[in-house]
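Appendix C. Worked example: LysR family transcriptional regulator
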Amino acid sequence: MNCEDLFRKRIEFSRTRTPVLARKRIEFRHLHAFVAVCEHRHFTKAAQFLAISQPALSSLISQLEQDLGMQLLIRTTRSVEMTPTGREFLSSAIRIVGDLQRSVQEVQDYTQLRRGRLRIAALPSLCTYLLPEAAAQFARQHEGISISIVDVMGDEVVERVTRRQVDFGIGYVSSTEMVSADPILTDRLVALGTTDFLGDDTSLKWNELAAMPIIAMSDGTTVRSLVERGCREAGIAPDFALEANQMPSAIAYARAGLGVAILPSSAVVGPAEDLRSVDLIAPQIERSLSVIRTRDNPISPPAAAFLKILRNLRAPPVAADRSGAQSGRE
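Step 2, the predicted output written as structure tokens:
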């Protein structure tokens, strides 16, 4: 698809600067035709280049000259020459045609994922496995797109989206009054600890935590509220032996045998012989994570391609020997 098909660009001259051209409109196709004739110095060759008939080309040039009120070309039987006015006008026409063609090419490169930029804000727990893996696949498939990911707390994910500092965010949102939230994956809480606490079981009931010291994220975090909900639904009064502001701290406490850390499954990755992670059940506490964007901001082609990759990925299974953790709190 050429520029004329994509942009029926109209260039309207200012009435104050050129009163003689009041109400005169010169379209991109007129300028494109003029530049082509000047470059080829021949109507037939220019018409072939533009893929239009010679009469159609002649009509475009005539319309342009009529709108300008000046002769631009001198036609002979063998070639075409520019008038002094035509030579003066050519430089501006070349610049305008070139600028538009470059703009069209940039848009095409962006929509076809040959170049561009993608900015994402996400919860820290997603920045350990899911997003790095998705980003790696995206980078391999679309080398011309630069990608940046910032891990921030839940409220800041929404804040960065509303301030348009990122193309979209991925996180938990309690209200969709100011943003659009499309669910993309479900995260669940798991228990992480040494075999002294978890033994060889593959799951742990919430009421069994009543006899264990719990390592929880600090008050005010999304994870903490989910932990309190699980304890409440299980009918137990939790013993929060330790509170951590950062998930690596919670992991370190668990590794030291100080208790059982309760963390999102998306944050628990990587083998470790000294820790185990198991599903927490009865109840199973889950949270829906969403793609967050402003309501007036459509998903860009790079963002759509990234989210397609992310949807095809699955969170790592919680197994007996998986126990990594991400780099923050949420």
